[in-house]
Amino acid sequence: MTGLNRRSVIALGGAGLTQYILQAAVAPPEAVASTARNGISVSEQLLTSLQSTTDALRQADASHGSGNLARAAIAHLKVLLRFLKEGDFNEATGKRLAAVTADTAIQTGWYHFDSGAHTVAHNLLVGALRAAHASGDSRLRAGALSFIAIHGYSVGDPRDAVTAARTARQVIADQDAPALNAMLLTRQARGHARLREDGQARTALEEAQALCARGEDDPHWLYWINPSEIMGQTGSCLLDLGRPNQAAQAFADARNAFSPYEIRTRAQFLSRAPTAQMRAGNVGRICHRTRSPRSRLHSPLRTLGRQPRHDARRGPPLLLGDSRPGAFGAWSGRHGGTRRMKRTILVLWDIDRTLVYTGDIDRRVYKETFTSVIGRSPIALPARGTGVTMPLAVRELLRVNQVPEQDVETFAARIVDELPERLASHRELLFNDGVIMPGAMDALAAVQQAEHLIPTVVTGNLQGSAETKLSALGLIDHLDTTIGGYASDDPHRPALVRIAQKRATAKHGYSFNRDNTVIVGDSLEDVRTGLEGGARVIAVASGTTTEQQLRAAGAHHVLADLTSTTSLLRLIDQDEAL
Predict the structure, then answer these.
(1) What's the angle, vertex CA 384, arms to CA 563 and CA 411, rounded to 5?
(2) What are the residue ranges spanned by the domains of the chain?
(3) Could you read off the pLDDT of 361-407 as tens digits, one per residue?
């Protein structure tokens, strides 16, 4: 297929985002036709089945939660991307395939956003916009842009929210869709409010109220937009604009206007009211306002055909005591100023074969980089799964391939400098072929959510390579990579523990040592790193080393895998007392 570029459906971001958003409004749909020969035939029946899977995932969100669906959605999206890359289809079928891909990427992006994986969510949503553009469905484009706007005003650049919402309205200018326009105007208003653009926010909200009606072309999934919803969005805007008294009144009006059956949505605005009251100095009203049945906090919310655990259409929930509007899983302040019942513990995660498995991609990168620097292909490559740091592996690579000893250090420095960039060029390969180890996503989320635990990494990867792997597979937002220890810091792996401890101390103000530092890894090198570097060791037999070998090496605890988060958390806290 041309135009859509199968190899970059989910590869746009950074400085090109605004330009691409604007192009989404004016560029004609790209041609979508297969150039594959002897590929899998993509039929209408197959597309119907693929869309059914997408719809089933959307419905399952209500009962299982986004975090539990993220991996299933990624797997389904990979199937669709494989069909785009290798399938045999005509242009009409290709457009429908692009539409199913866009719909799935939007949902997958939402699942990751709801789970706190904001970077991968952003990349997925931009990819969804690209696929929606190729499909020719303007409402799908508007849907993707609306979620990009949410990302912008919640955790990104509010200017992106304004641009995305305005562009989405331009995209559907020829449609009779007042409700869709009203929803997009609330997104635009939230962006203006975060930018403290009072007049523009007010104008957008007033227009949204005026447009709040159903049109012939409004999509079926947009059943939730109504005056009460817009009043609630008004409260959020007023809170961002520094008008807590007016915000509190808007939240109260919105909450009271919803029907009794919209329990979860009413509870959502109920949870925001205390923040407004606190900022307004009306502390005495908080307890009364927040008294509500516990069941309200567990009822499903409405969003783009799905039922998320909180309503990200309105932005992140602002709970009592959270003075950071839009602070959604942010690291700043997470471990500061909060009373804890447990001592703070630094959790150091290994990456390869503990959290992810990337097959032979690392070896491919070694081969390409060696060839680029030395001018010939290597006859031997580093061993798999040893845990040796990349600088040491590079030196061994040079020696076994008969590079003169006097040249080893010079060539090693050049290869080490080039490795992260070359791995980054294979992000799509990592996304398609990389695997998250069993239980790793849930384990990372559980550790991140525990207030007394600070998760980061200690790895034999260079920092750039580590961050590429984690971001490509959607794990990076569960870790504070700014305080990790990397092979680019020191090729001697045990030294990385102390480096991470010092960085964590500088950021969080706690002193970390063997008593309150835990390393989680799969190899004998991970065990040695912890024992020599100053950390308790929880070994995971998910790599090439057996449970017996890990115990014999001195690991304090050994798990077969990461599928039991309860066991992992218990062992982390048990290490605290040893």
Answers:
(1) 130
(2) 345-354+435-577, 359-433
(3) 988 999 999 999 999 999 988 877 677 889 998 999 999 999 999 99
